[in-house]
Protein backbone atom coordinates (compact mmCIF):
# COMPACT_ATOMS: atom_id res chain seq x y z
CA UNK A 1 0.00 0.00 0.00
CA UNK A 2 2.90 2.33 0.58
CA UNK A 3 3.75 2.03 -3.10
CA UNK A 4 0.24 3.22 -4.01
CA UNK A 5 0.59 6.31 -1.81
CA UNK A 6 4.05 7.05 -3.22
CA UNK A 7 2.73 6.78 -6.77
CA UNK A 8 -0.13 9.18 -6.00
CA UNK A 9 2.31 11.65 -4.41
CA UNK A 10 4.52 11.51 -7.51
CA UNK A 11 1.56 12.03 -9.85
CA UNK A 12 0.26 14.97 -7.81
CA UNK A 13 3.72 16.57 -7.94
CA UNK A 14 3.65 16.37 -11.74
CA UNK A 15 0.14 17.88 -11.84
CA UNK A 16 1.30 20.66 -9.50
CA UNK A 17 4.33 21.43 -11.67
CA UNK A 18 2.18 21.59 -14.81
CA UNK A 19 -0.32 23.90 -13.14
CA UNK A 20 2.43 26.21 -11.89
CA UNK A 21 3.96 26.44 -15.36
CA UNK A 22 0.62 27.15 -17.00
CA UNK A 23 -0.67 30.65 -17.75
CA UNK A 24 -4.32 29.60 -17.98
CA UNK A 25 -6.84 31.09 -15.58
CA UNK A 26 -8.82 27.87 -15.13
CA UNK A 27 -7.60 24.35 -14.55
CA UNK A 28 -9.49 21.05 -14.60
CA UNK A 29 -10.10 19.57 -11.14
CA UNK A 30 -9.92 16.09 -12.66
CA UNK A 31 -6.15 16.58 -13.07
CA UNK A 32 -5.82 16.07 -9.30
CA UNK A 33 -8.93 14.06 -8.46
CA UNK A 34 -8.09 11.14 -10.73
CA UNK A 35 -4.87 10.54 -8.79
CA UNK A 36 -6.51 11.01 -5.39
CA UNK A 37 -9.06 8.42 -6.50
CA UNK A 38 -6.26 5.85 -6.73
CA UNK A 39 -5.48 6.01 -3.02
CA UNK A 40 -6.33 2.86 -1.04
CA UNK A 41 -9.96 2.94 0.01
CA UNK A 42 -10.93 5.80 -2.31
CA UNK A 43 -13.75 3.75 -3.84
CA UNK A 44 -15.47 3.74 -0.45
CA UNK A 45 -15.28 7.52 -0.07
CA UNK A 46 -12.32 7.50 2.30
CA UNK A 47 -10.62 10.47 0.59
CA UNK A 48 -13.69 12.51 -0.41
CA UNK A 49 -12.53 15.54 1.59
CA UNK A 50 -9.16 15.50 -0.13
CA UNK A 51 -10.73 15.85 -3.57
CA UNK A 52 -10.96 19.23 -5.24
CA UNK A 53 -14.47 20.56 -5.84
CA UNK A 54 -15.07 22.50 -9.04
CA UNK A 55 -17.92 24.15 -10.89
CA UNK A 56 -20.36 22.29 -13.14
CA UNK A 57 -17.91 22.20 -16.06
CA UNK A 58 -15.08 20.80 -13.89
CA UNK A 59 -13.05 24.01 -13.87
CA UNK A 60 -11.38 25.66 -10.91
CA UNK A 61 -9.13 28.72 -10.64
CA UNK A 62 -5.51 27.78 -11.20
CA UNK A 63 -4.44 29.43 -7.92
CA UNK A 64 -7.02 27.39 -6.01
CA UNK A 65 -5.85 24.25 -7.81
CA UNK A 66 -2.20 24.89 -6.92
CA UNK A 67 -3.04 25.64 -3.27
CA UNK A 68 -5.22 22.58 -2.92
CA UNK A 69 -2.71 20.21 -4.51
CA UNK A 70 0.07 21.62 -2.31
CA UNK A 71 -2.06 20.99 0.79
CA UNK A 72 -2.96 17.47 -0.39
CA UNK A 73 0.71 16.69 -1.01
CA UNK A 74 1.70 18.00 2.42
CA UNK A 75 -1.00 15.87 4.06
CA UNK A 76 -0.06 12.71 2.17
CA UNK A 77 3.66 13.17 2.79
CA UNK A 78 3.16 13.81 6.50
CA UNK A 79 0.84 10.87 7.05
CA UNK A 80 2.14 8.30 4.55
CA UNK A 81 3.28 5.95 7.31
CA UNK A 82 -0.04 6.11 9.16
CA UNK A 83 -2.27 5.53 6.13
CA UNK A 84 -3.81 2.16 6.84
CA UNK A 85 -4.21 -0.22 3.93
CA UNK A 86 -7.74 -0.84 2.79
CA UNK A 87 -9.32 -4.18 3.50
CA UNK A 88 -9.42 -6.70 0.72
CA UNK A 89 -12.89 -6.68 -0.73
CA UNK A 90 -12.74 -10.22 -2.07
CA UNK A 91 -12.38 -12.78 0.75
CA UNK A 92 -11.74 -15.69 -1.62
CA UNK A 93 -8.52 -14.15 -2.92
CA UNK A 94 -6.11 -16.41 -0.99
CA UNK A 95 -8.21 -19.55 -0.98
CA UNK A 96 -6.10 -21.44 -3.53
CA UNK A 97 -2.79 -20.68 -1.78
CA UNK A 98 -3.08 -23.48 0.79
CA UNK A 99 -3.78 -26.20 -1.77
CA UNK A 100 -1.00 -25.02 -4.03
CA UNK A 101 1.60 -25.11 -1.25
CA UNK A 102 0.47 -28.61 -0.22
CA UNK A 103 0.81 -29.83 -3.79
CA UNK A 104 4.33 -28.44 -4.02
CA UNK A 105 5.44 -30.18 -0.83
CA UNK A 106 3.94 -33.57 -1.79
CA UNK A 107 4.41 -34.36 -5.51
CA UNK A 108 2.29 -37.57 -5.33
CA UNK A 109 -0.75 -35.69 -3.98
CA UNK A 110 -0.98 -33.55 -7.09
CA UNK A 111 -1.04 -36.44 -9.56
CA UNK A 112 -3.93 -38.40 -8.06
CA UNK A 113 -6.32 -35.52 -7.41
CA UNK A 114 -7.01 -33.77 -10.68
CA UNK A 115 -9.42 -30.81 -10.64
CA UNK A 116 -12.67 -31.34 -12.49
CA UNK A 117 -14.14 -28.60 -14.64
CA UNK A 118 -17.83 -28.75 -13.77
CA UNK A 119 -18.76 -26.64 -16.76
CA UNK A 120 -17.58 -29.36 -19.15
CA UNK A 121 -19.61 -32.21 -17.62
CA UNK A 122 -22.73 -32.99 -19.62
CA UNK A 123 -25.79 -33.56 -17.51
CA UNK A 124 -29.02 -34.97 -18.88
CA UNK A 125 -31.92 -32.55 -19.04
CA UNK A 126 -34.83 -33.62 -16.83
CA UNK A 127 -37.76 -35.04 -18.82
CA UNK A 128 -35.91 -35.34 -22.15
CA UNK A 129 -34.78 -39.00 -21.97
Short description:
The chain has 129 residues and is mostly helical. It has five helices and two strands; from the N terminus they run αβαβααα.
Structure, explained:
The chain is mainly alpha-helical. The chain has a domain at about 1-85. Helices cover about 45% and strands about 5% of the residues. It is built from 5 helices and 2 strands. It has helices at about 1-20, 30-35, 60-80, 95-105, 105-110, and strands spanning about 25-30, 60. It has a two-stranded antiparallel ribbon with strand order 1-2. α1 (about 1-20) packs antiparallel against α2 (about 30-35) and α1 (about 1-20) packs antiparallel against α3. It is elongated. The termini are far apart. The mean pLDDT is about 80.
The neighbouring-strand order within the major sheet is 1-2
Structural class: mainly alpha
End-to-end distance: 57 Å
Q: Please report the total strand number as a whole number.
A: 2
Q: What integer is the average pLDDT?
A: 78
Task: Calculate Rg over CA atoms.
Answer: 25 Å
What order do the SSEs take from the amino end to the carboxyl end, as H and E?
HEHEHHH
Search tags:
mainly alpha, two-stranded antiparallel ribbon, 5 helices, 2 strands, 129 residues
Topology:
Elements: H1 2-21, E1 26-28, H2 30-36, E2 59-61, H3 62-78, H4 95-105, H5 107-112
Antiparallel strand pairs: 1-2
Helix pairs in contact: 1-2, 1-3
Amino acid sequence: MAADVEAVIAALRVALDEAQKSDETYWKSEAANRWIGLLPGAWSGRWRRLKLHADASGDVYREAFVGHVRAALAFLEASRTQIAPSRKWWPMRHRGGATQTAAKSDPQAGTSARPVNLLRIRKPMPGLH
